[in-house]
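Re: the 279-residue chain
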Amino acid sequence: MYRLLLFLRRIYVLAIFLVLEGLALHYYANSTVHSRARLLGISDAVVGKIYGAISGAEYMMSLGGVNRQLEARVEALENELSVWREKYSAAQFDSIRAAVAFPHDYITARVVRNSINKRENYIMVDRGSADGVERGMAVTSLDGCMVGYVQDVSAGNAICVSVLGTDFRASGMFTSTGHFGSVSWQGGDPRTVRLSEVPKYAGVERGDTIITRSSINFPEGILIGTVENFTVDEPRASLDIDVRLGADIAALRMVMLVRIPEAFERANLEEEVLGTNEE
């Protein structure tokens, strides 16, 4: 009790002031309608700020839960998106197959080994005889550009001769004129091959499109690339043409293996009758 009296003695001035202030405000608030409305406006503003501060504090305290909900939603959307990505990739493969106007068999394969800096470069893929892969099948990029052909096959893998090999040979022709020649790699630049034995009177322009000519390894119409430069070989009366490859061999991750039943049948017939077959 003594301590309470000491405490009241210390604050009695402040207590009297607050009581008098309260009485004055009460008197002022009830003196006129204008003063009452003004005090109500002030009190509403103060109460609104207090409630706003409380609401902000509650919102800040709830951000942890909101973030967890957003993270869960993002994770669910990413999982759903990954499923659609796989379906889209499969649809792309199907559209690529449908875009080639030949009744051939196609097998998609993943590149497991690749080289571009040797004289004879090879590509290993993760498909083999167990998947229907055979020697001589054409190899193209997913967008249908020439890459090489299958040379050797095991049960689960295949070794493919890359277009970047000095022994590689194919037949290429102009889409515009039908003139054709032999495709080979001269070494060095992994983005360029040589089209030779083209008659010098063939109308050639930079940017002309070169495609494969039907052979044992390639159906007609597979894109090889575009003309980058050319020179005239006067003694042979022919053109040597540098062709920019349509496929970036160094960046291959997936390829398509193309089986050409009619070409295999024709090659076997030629070998039986003539003892040779064309490249």
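The chain has a mean pLDDT of 78.
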